[in-house]
Every structure is written in structure tokens, then in C-alpha cells.
Amino acid sequence: MYVCVCLCFPSRAPQLSVNLLVMAEGRGEIPPLHFALPPASKRPCLRPAPRGPGPGPGPGFSNPRLQCPESLLDCAAKAVAEKWAFERVEERFERIPEPVQRRIVYWSFPRNEREICMYSSFQCRGAGEDGPAAGAGAPVGSGAVPGAVSGAVGNAVAAGSGEGLPFRRGIRLLESGCVENVLQVGFHLSGTVTEPVSGSEPEATYKVAISFDRCKITSVTCGCGNRDIFYCAHVVALSLYRIRKPDQVKLRLPISETLFQMNRDQLQKFVQYLITAHHTEVLPTAQKLADEILSSNSEINQVHGAPDPTAGASIDDDNCWHLDEEQVREQVKQFLSQGGYYGSGKQLNSMFAKVREMLRMRDSNGARMLTLITEQFMADPRLSLWRQQGTGMTDKCRQLWDELGALWVCIVLNPHCKSEEKSGWLRQLKKWSDMDVCPLEDGNYGTELPNITNALPQSNLNQDSLARPRRTVFTRAMEACDLHWQDSHLQRIISSDFYVSPSYQREGESLLFNQQGLPLWLDHVPTACARVDALRSHGYPREALRLAVAIINTLRLQQQRQLDIYKHQKKELLQRGVTTTTNLEGWVGHPLDPIGCLFTTLTETCRLEDDNTMDTGDSEPKPPVYQHVPVWGSPDGGESYLSLALEVALMGMGQQRVMPEGLYAQDKVCRNEEQIVARLQEIELDEVLVQTLRKQAVLLLEVGGPFSGLGEVIHRESVPMHTFAKYLFTALLPHDTDLAYKIALRAMRLPVLESTAPSGDVGHPHHGISIVPSRYPRWFTLGHLESQQCELASTMLTAAKGDMLRLRTVLEAIQKNIHSSSLIFKLAQDAFKIATPAENPPDITLLKVALELGLQVMRMTLSTLNWRRREMVRWLVTCATEVGLRALVSILQSWYTLFTPTEATSIVAATVMSHNTILRLSLDYPQREELASCARTLALQCAMKDPQNCALSALTLCEKDHIAFETAYQIVIDAASTGMTYSQLFTIARYMEHRGYPLRAFKLASLAMTHLNLAYNQDTHPAINDVLWACALSHSLGKNELAAIIPLVVKSVHCATVLSDILRRCTMTAPGLAGIPGRRNSGKLMSTDKAPLRQLLDATISAYINTTHSRLTHISPRHYGEFIEFLSKARETFLLAQDGHIQFAQFIDNLKQIYKGKKKLMMLVRERFG
Length: 1170
Prior knowledge:
The protein contains 47 helices and 13 strands. By secondary structure, it is mainly alpha-helical.
């Protein structure tokens, strides 16, 4: 700023103070003093308690009634210091007395610690923050009361856990006496801050310099070299020193005023001493300036006056807080590059919260910071990559873009935004929106949604996505630029709590007022709520509340009219059972979050918090506590903002709306619904709120058609109400059980999974209502919705424990509406767990419900593949066991509708007949026999239906009943020739031998041999052990059985080594060693020259010959040694015959002749066998 030094006339200070006050009020001319005010010295202009962010008097005052009146000079200086640049004050007044200058300079430093905290930590929201009015103008001390400041901020933050934050560290440095040499020269504050020894870091002292103007810090410099968005702890410490200890700071006028008081010799001495003290740094600059001043044609001599860095900003300078734009860009870029990992998503959300905080404080840096953030978001290289690959962005990233778009809507809807500013923002938004990489509003799908400024019904939807307008995340903000605040009705709504219509105008219909005379605001609901959010975000909480109340009164009126419309259509709708009329644009999951906005606005004013708290971002948030606050201007005075918040949340959640297209849009609906429910659960319901809850619940049940998601008739693709109904059920259950169950049972439906489609429509177009053609939807979140349906059912089952009638009703609703076997099984398990507590007797009614659900699961999964099927079957048997004998008998008798034959025999019947089950049920003998008889009948039925898999289990289950066992055995024999494999028959044969039936085992083994075929090279076949066992069994039974089995072996087995092994075993011992009663054993070894071994020997020799030729066809040198060993085993078998040696010699000679080309191999054969 360039200043011209002027003379000081202290005698004019009182009159100048009055002029300054007039100037601060925005008047251009000084009016004559004709208003009826007492003299300045007589007016009771009491100074409010100096304080930081916390309310109440600071430590400088013990009793607010004993405060000294503030001087007129201080009142005027404070007002001017906050509103006007000092250059304008100098221009307005020819001469300014030095005391006036001092007070203006004194009051020009920021006075609110909240603002320092805002620029030195991510979160700085105090309880009950109402915008800049909440202490922005609170004095922090004056010359009359030294040190009259508040330590509320420091005490509050000390109680938190944000020890590492710059603000907290700055307080610690200040309280430790680390701030020294503090000097204020005009609008420039300097000092030194000493950082104490910390760990391995030595003590360090940093020089800090702060420039300020109109109660805002405009630039900071610190020797620590801090590179961050926020001020460092040293800047915080110096700033708080100036706020808390203003009268311990040496105060000087701007340096130009001091220089003016010097004569030529003093000025020369001053300059020479300054150069001497800093000659290494300033000498070149000093010489350059001297040369320019001595040159008459230099540029420096063309300007009147000289710059003064301590004289404050000029008139043309922007009056805003210092914000390091480069650091904002760098940090956003860094967070985006981390892709949502390492907490970067949380950091970016904190930056968005910081923007909202700045807006609430009416700080122009809010829009500036959001612009910087948006530029980096648009420069994210992943955008083009996602677009090229045709893939959607990550969910976390998508949420960040949504918040970005919502913040821009809030920015452009600033009630006091200048038209030039709005035009500039619109140009910038269009520029971003026109970029190819700009994300679309609804993710990967272009859903047609009503324009923010034109929410007229659209009865003919264009299903061609190519014809839909391209809507980006900035489209709503661009549309919001067309909105204004000049509507007279809107102005009256937000400016007065008592704006009502005259009583004589309340008859008939009105678009401006309801029948009680309360104002309405008929607008597209999300747009109207965006206005509320803008008012609240820009520091106008009272105005936001007024508009929110008007919107709720409008919604109430619309809901009543919807009820009237439905009553006229009810009969026809109930006959059809469905409707194709619904809301195209749901309020839950909407990009502007209208319901969340209204709820937050209304509950903020009801929130009870400790006023001496400040959230600096590190501490864990405490659950909110709410109180009833009466609605200002309410005619009956019975309504509170808290009850309105509950009511509007219920209205929004209960709105019937069609499920949007696209994965992200559908996921957002579910997520937003859960967020609202979570906030509703934070409210402790009292009698007033229960009445509100009950009234709205009844209305949602009664209002049908396209209006309520809980109505009798809904659209097939309507968003389910399961999550919402679960909250209503839980909240209403202690107060109105019938209503709670009515709502929950109504909400259990999931029409989109029903097979019937709507046949027509009888709805009439309504505001925000459109006719949606029936289509098969792509519900990407169907799994989540079904799990929520299951949660609702589980909640009802738990609550209905012990009440058979309600349990039966809930069971019917589950069986009718839940279509997932896995979820029904989960419900059955939950019911079973609740019904069988560890320390109490079981609840038999709930157990029966669990069993019914389990039986339904069995029927649903009987003919389908389900990897949990075995678990389900085992669980059902356990559940039936807990219910009792009759349940077990029932599932055994009706097994064919519940289980496969294998499951019925191997799991169900086996478990039922186990010793543990008998003990668990404490059955007597007749009951055990009844259960066993059912199990045997089941086993025989299963064996008949599936002998391959159930025969062995059937035999096992029928062991103790001779007739049943014989029947099972006959089933096996009958099935052996047709459907059973050799492995199954061998298994049953071994079982028979083990049970003491060797002849039956032999018969089954013989049948198994007829199904077997062992090739010459299958010497590792798994059936070899079974063949050896069958031959050993036959040999042990006697010569006749061996003679019977050998032809089967010869026919089925062609592997030489296996045949030779059988032959060797049969010659080692005499047959018939099993000792079958009635048979004689000769005790003689069998000869290979006689039957039946002769046939086996010939077959073995033949197998060796065939195998030899087969192996020689493709033999390789590395297998020569193995082949020679094979021939050695063949010779052993040949020698068992009488002329075996001759046969083997002929065999070798044939090999030599046939395979003489294999010289090396034949040489090895001659070496071994001659």
C-alpha cells in the first residue's frame, strides 16, 4: 500500500470517532446529528465479555455486570478495523489523529481463536456453532482491561487427543512461554518462537512474521519452512499470543508514520544503521534503490509516496485469509494418487469439511479452496484411464466426486453471492463439465432425472440412453446457477418466524399457505432442500430452519392430498394388486441428499453439547444428545424441531420410489438409507416423538398407490422398505406392538422377485410422478436387499418368541416373501439359537418355527446344487431332535420330499439311530423300536430307489432285523447285474465277510468280477486288491469256490503280474481253510497241472507272452533293465508248468528272431537267458 504521511490532530478524535461509526455502517455521507441519542459519554455502551471461541466471560472478568463501558473510539475503531481497508480511511479523512490510528491498528488483528484453529487443523467445529455471529465480533481486550481474553479454546483442546495438530502444539508453545520479542508495527506482527528439545531434536528458535488486514491474516512467514495447507504451530503460537495478551505486545504505528516524524539527519542515520545491521543481505538492494531515487527519470520517482508493508492492504486487494494455494494443490494431488488407500479418502473428506467450515464462517476461501480441489480432481490421470477401459471408478472415489458436486451446488446457492461471481463459477463449471473425462452424475449409466429447476412430470420416458442429456457431477450446480433468492414469498419465509397468512384468507386452496396460515414453499423437493443446505452452510442457521419448516408443512399437505387421491383409487388398485405409477426421483440416495439435509438442519438446533468444546479432528466423536426446542412462530407451540426432524426422515424413507439404474446409484440408495436410520437411532424416543412416529407410521400404511412404500399396493420395482421397517418395528415395539408388526409384515414383500408382472395402470400423473414401463430390472444390490429382508424377519422372530400366533404369522410371511434358501436357512439357524439358550429350557414354539423353516430349505434345495446342503441336512436332524420324537418320525416318513436317498440313509437315518440321539431324547424301548422301524423302512425304500449309493447303508441299518436285512440283501443281488459297479459290489462283499457271511460275500464278489476288466498294462489298478481279496476268499472257502472264481478271473484280468500273483498265492496253501461247517478239507496243495489252476497258469503264461510283445513295440533303451526283470518273473511262471523250461526257451528264441533289430536289448537277453 502506498501512503502519504499526514499531520495528526488528537483534538478531533471524538468527532472522528462518530464519523468512523457512520462510515462503518456503510453510509457515504456524514448525516447531521439530529437523531435522539444521548452524548457519547453518557450512552451505556458496555463492552461484552472478551472471549475466544467459547461463550461466557474470560478470566479477565469475574462478574459481567462490573464490565467497564467501551469507549466510543474503541467502538468505532473495532467496526472500521473489521470492515474497511486502512487506505480507504486515509482517503476519507484528510488527517487521522494518532490515537485513532492506534486503535484501528490494534483492532485489525483477528479476535477469534476459532478462526486461527480453522486454518491450523482439519476440523474446528465448536458445539452450537452458528456461523460468524457466534463470537466473531467479540472483543479480546482493550487498553483498559489488560489480558482480558478467554482460554476456553485451549482448555477444550487440551481435553482432546489432538496433540499432534498445529493448533494444539501452538497452544502448548504459548503456555510454555516459548513466544518472545513480539512486536506489532502497523499491520505487521513479528516475534520469535522457541521449539524446546524433543527427543533427538535440539532446541530451535524460529522467526515468525504475520501480516493482517481487517481481522484476517493475509500472509505468514516462519523460519521452520513449513510446507502444509495449514499454519504451523509457531504461527499459531504467535497469533494466540496477540489474541490472549494484546497489551503485552509492543504496538507501533505503520513504519511510514514513524519515518515521517524524523528529520533528514535522523532518516540518514536510520538508513545507515539499518544497512550496517544487515549489510550482507540488503546492501545491493539499497544501492540499487539509491541509484533509482537519484535518477530523475526513473520509474520510482514517477510514483507519489512509497510502499509500506506495515500499512495494511490497499483498497483493491482481496480481503481474505492467507491460504497456500500451491500446498492445497499438492496435497490433493498426493491424496488422489494414493487411490483411497492410507487414509487419503478420509483426508480428502476432511478437506471438504474444511470447505464447509469456511463457508459457514462466510470465508471467501471456501470457494477458492474448492476450486483448487476441483482442478486437481479433474486432472486425476485415472479419469482418462477409466474412460478408455470402460470401467467405473472405485466406490470411495465416486463418493468423493458426489461430495464435490454437492459442495458446488452449495457454493452457487450462496444467498449473498454477487452475479459476477455466479457467472464466473458457471463458466468454470461448464468448462469442467464439457471435458470428456468429467464423471457422470449416476456413474456408468445415464439415468434421466428431473432438472433441478424444472421438476414437471414426465409421462413419456425415453428409454434410448443415447437421447438422454449428458449429466455430469457438475450439472446440478450449473442448474442451480439459474436459481435466485428474490422471490418475495421466499424472502418473507426466511426473514421472519411469524410470517402467516391473515385469518380471513385461510378458506379454500392456497399455493402459499396451508389451512393453519403457515407458509408453504412449493418447489422441487431436492431443490428446496438444496436452498436449506446453502443457507445453513453459509452461516444462516435461523433462515435455514424457517425454510425447512415451510418445506415440511408442504410435504405434510402433499401427503394428505396423496391420501385423498388413493382413497378414490383404492378399490381398483386393490383389484389389480400392483401399480406402474411411482416416483422417478427418490429422495433417499439423491445426489443432493434432501432428507439428510433437512434432518441435519433441524437436529443441529436441538443438539446438547458442552459449549467449551472444540473438535480438532483427532478425538473420537461422542454420540449426540438431543433436546426438544419449540418451533419459532408455531401457532400452537406444541411442535419441536426434533419432532419435525423425525417426521421428515420418516416421510423421506417411506417414499415409494423406483429403483434407479446402475450399480453405484443403487448402492447409494442402500447406503444413504442406512445412514439415515443410523442417525434416527441416535435419537432417544420420548412420548412426543413416539406420537410422531406412530402418526407417520399409520399414514405410511394408509397412503397407498404410488406414494408410500409401505402402502397396500406398490410398483413392482419399488425400492424395498426392509431397512426402514426394521427401524420402525424396533422403535414402535415397546409402545404399539400391533402397529409394529403390521408395518414389518407389510414391508417383508419383495415384488421384483415375484413372477407376476403388472397388467396395467390406473394411476394419474402427479407432481414428481411418472409411469414407468415394466422391465426386468438389473438390481445389482439384490443380494444386499435380500439380506436386509432376512434381518427384518430375524428381528420379528426374536421379538415374537413365545407368542405362537405372531410366530405363525411371521413364518407365513417368510415362506411367502423370502426366495433365497441360504437366507431362510440363516433364519432357521437364528431361530434355533434363540430358542435354545444355554442356561434356560428351550422355547418349543420358536423351535417348531425353526424346524418349519428348515423343512422349507430342504424342499427348496432338494433338486438344486447347493454346497451347504450336507450342513443343512445335519442341522435339520439336530433341530428335529430338539423338537422331539414326533418330529424325527415325521422327517423319516416323508424323507422323499426332503432328502436324496443318499442323504436319507447316510446322514438322516444314521444320525437318528445313533446312540447319542437315543440318549438325548431319553427314549423307552417302544419309542426306540418305533424310530428304528421308521429308519429301516426308509433304508429299504432308499435302497430300492438308489441301490448303488444306498445299499450298504441299508444293510447296516437293517442288521438287527433279520427280515429287513434279508430284504436289503436281495435288493443288492437284484441290482448287481444292472446298475451297480464292481467297486460298490466289492465294498458290500467285504462288508458281508466282515459280518460273518462269507458265502454271500463270495457271491457278491463273483458278481463284481463280471463287471471288471483289467488290461495288460494296468498293474496299478485300484481294483487289484479287491481281485486278490476275492481270490483269497474263494481259496479259503474251498476248491469248488476257487474253481468257480478262476474262470471269472481269467476272463476279466489280462495283467500278467496280477495273474502270476494270484497263481502264486493259490499254490502256497491248501484250499478250504475257512472251515465252513459241513465241508471236509483235504489239506493238500493244489497242482498247477490240474484244474482249476491249470487254466489260471495257461492264462498267466499267455498274458506274459502278449504283454512282452506289447512292451517291445514301443520300448526305449532306458527301460531295457526293467524289461529284463519282467522276463525273469515270466520265467518263474513258465517253470510252474511241466514243460515250462522248453516253452520259455522257445519264447526267448522267438524274441531273438522277431526283434533282432534291437541288438543291444537282444544282447542283454542272451546274457541273462542264453
